[in-house]
Amino acid sequence: MASLLEKVQTLIAANLHALVDSALKANSIAVVDQYIRQIEDNLEDLEDAIATVGGQVKTLRRKHTEFSEKAQKLDRDIDVLLKESKEELAVAAQSKLNSTNRLVESYVEQLARQEREYDSLQDARLKLEAKLTTVKQEREELQALLDLARSKEITVRAIESLDDLAGARDTDVARIAESIRERLDRAAARTEMVAGRLDVQMDEVLERRELDAQLAERKARLGLA
Description:
Blueprint: H1 2-13, H2 16-26, H3 30-83, H4 87-166, H5 171-222
Helix pairs in contact: 1-3, 1-4, 2-4, 3-4, 4-5
């Protein structure tokens, strides 16, 4: 499971700011969609791993209980055999008890190891699910930003095409072109204002997610989770 946990930790530690910057530079959310697919694939692998390790933990607990009870019974039997002066049987029972105790100790070690791995997998799943939720929210806001950017590009191209009309000899055509340009300028200004607000919202969301993650980590360390 080590390689799976390493891949998951890499996804959890990914810098969302860098991811968003890459998407904005490429003018596409494909990079974010790919990241989301990677998280979802690893979540499926985590679910399978958790089910497997969880089953092993249950088996080890059952075996530990079973052989602990056998050891206790053997211990009582040895006392009975000694009281009845059945030395040879007591020796055989003591030998079997020693073997059983070693097996119980082995189950204790295996159980502790598997429980640690199970807890690690569960913790990784919770963190990855939180990351997925955050990234999907960022994707929606990023899509809005890209839509605004494309809208602004269309507006700019329209304004540039109007420059030719404004320079035409026909005064009516020039006046209409100027009126349209003023409306496009107002639309562009509103677009910039909305885009600015979205930038601020994105920064606030990313900062809040980071603060929440830090507090969750501190709660886990304090045993408050």
